[in-house]
Amino acid sequence: MVADPGSPENYMRLELLARPENVALARVAVAAFAAQANFTLADLEEIKLCVSEAVSNVVLHAYPDGPGPVVIAAYFAAEKLVIEVTDQGIGIADVDKAREAQFSTLPDHMGLGFVFMESFMDTVAVDSTPGRGTKITMTRRLPSGIAAGTGDGTDRSREVDP
Amino acid sequence: METRLDGGTLSVTIGGELDLYTAAEVADRIDRALDDKAVRRLDLDLGAVSFIDSSGLGVIFGRYKKMRHRGGQMQITRVSPVAHRVLQMAFVDRIIPVVGTAGPRARAGGEGSGHGG
Hints:
The complex is a heterodimer of chains A (162) and B (117). Chain A is of the alpha+beta class and 162 residues long.
């Protein structure tokens, strides 16, 4: 389900039922993982927002017949934080349309999920097969100078605002 | 979350995380308060919001549309820095007047919203 990340310096993988109450757990887990790199608190807020959008999309759209699994994976590789959000839901028929600002199939939703992801991440890729599921892969460059997950024991702040 | 009705003004204070999970209840509670047709103005205090995403923005913007539809007004009387940033990103702050930021509770003042439609 989740592609082989090669030899990541560190990774996490979390499987959840795609329900609204689990969205917070997903974003907080990824933010805590990302905090191993020297991201600022503002960076971590942005990462949380992007995970929230990606997982909310799964909850809202992937499983119209009742919640199914969503896998949230993150890893550090090649000076990047990579975040993957994968479901086995109905897929997205028209990915280009789904990524447009203001496009939403639901009332009271502003169609901003992808806008936020694309604003705060360096890359956002959508791989979707109707009937099989969707995988969102987002990457964000690590803060320069400090490698992530090296376990060098330096006393960096790991403060995450939950 | 607190709601208070004072004359024709409904004041709503939202704290904590405003996401897909919490948004539904917030929308529902505001909408129930808006069943009172005497409400002409909605003041939203987001000063204690620690997280907001597009689902949270959807609730806010949805209430704005409701208020406009009934010929009323809506403004944001306080907003936390983290919520303010997201509002700005989505240009929501250009549509819904933000009359105060986090800090001392702002008394919702001026008329000059420019959205009297």
